[in-house]
Amino acid sequence: MTLNSSPSVDISLPIRRGAPPLPLAGEGWGGGAAASEVMVAEQKSPTWKVSSRLRSNARTLRKNSTDAERILWSELRGHRLNGSRFRRQVPIAGYIADFVCHDANLVIELDGGQHFADEAEKSDASRTVAIESRGFRVLRFSNHDVTTNRAGVLETIAAAVAAGAPTPTLPRKREREQTAVGASTAPATSCESNKP
After folding, report:
1. Cβ atoms of 139 and 145 closer than 8 Å
2. How far apart are CA 70 and CA 85, in angstroms?
3. Residue 104: which of 29, 163, 61, 26 has the closest Cα?
4. What does the alpha-carbon distance between residue 124 and residue 131 come to, in Å, rounded to a whole number?
5. Nearest to residue 107, comparing CAs of 123, 83, 91?
6. For a FRET experiment, which of 63, 79, 158, 194 has its CA 20 to 30 Å from that of 165?
């Protein structure tokens, strides 16, 4: 016995002809730029080449960070400092910068005790010049500063990010909002004030 044999029950589903069903959330039928085209346009890739050796050294430094680097990274990672995005151990100009904020063009370097010798200071100065030639501003802190004065270091970094970050454009008011604001600021005239 089949289901369609009963004359009172019609189980056949209507066939929808015409437009296809609406896409699920997050899916579309196209019409815009391909996702790969959008991603390429939005990516900020450096204009310099990074050797595989330097990239490998940066990965190693990320795994073997110092105590001061771990402390500062815990405060900077995940947009924790005023919503700014930081990366750590980034190759720039043949060097590996400790922390970088690309939005503010800011490099943060942490220096241990070995950086305070005369030769190391000369090396750090040439390193700073090379990084600054790429358009970055370099801030240097000692490991001791990070461990003993974390709030002061973060305050200095936040001020540098605020100074170097581009200012976002404010949205324009829509015409409807502008007329509503203009109407509310106009002087009110009432019939009662015109009475003798």
Report:
1. no
2. 16
3. 163
4. 10
5. 91
6. 63
pTM: 0.57
Q: Judge contact between 65 and 73, C-beta under 8 A.
A: yes
The H or E element that residue 131 is part of is: helix 118-132
Domains of the chain and CATH, by start = 47-164 (3.40.960.10)
Task: Give the Cα separation of 144 and 112 in Å (integer).
Answer: 8
pLDDT tens for the 196 residues of the chain, in order = 555 555 565 565 556 566 666 656 555 555 545 444 444 445 455 555 767 777 776 777 777 788 899 999 999 999 888 888 999 988 888 888 899 999 899 999 998 866 566 777 888 888 999 999 999 999 999 999 999 999 999 999 999 999 887 766 666 666 655 555 555 555 555 555 455 5
Q: Which of 165, 97, 88 is nearest to 130 (CA)?
A: 97
The C-alpha atoms of residue 91 and residue 106 are separated, in whole angstroms, by 14
Q: State the Cα–Cα distance between residues 143 and 141, nearest whole angstrom.
A: 7
Q: Which residue has the tokens 């358009």?
A: 135
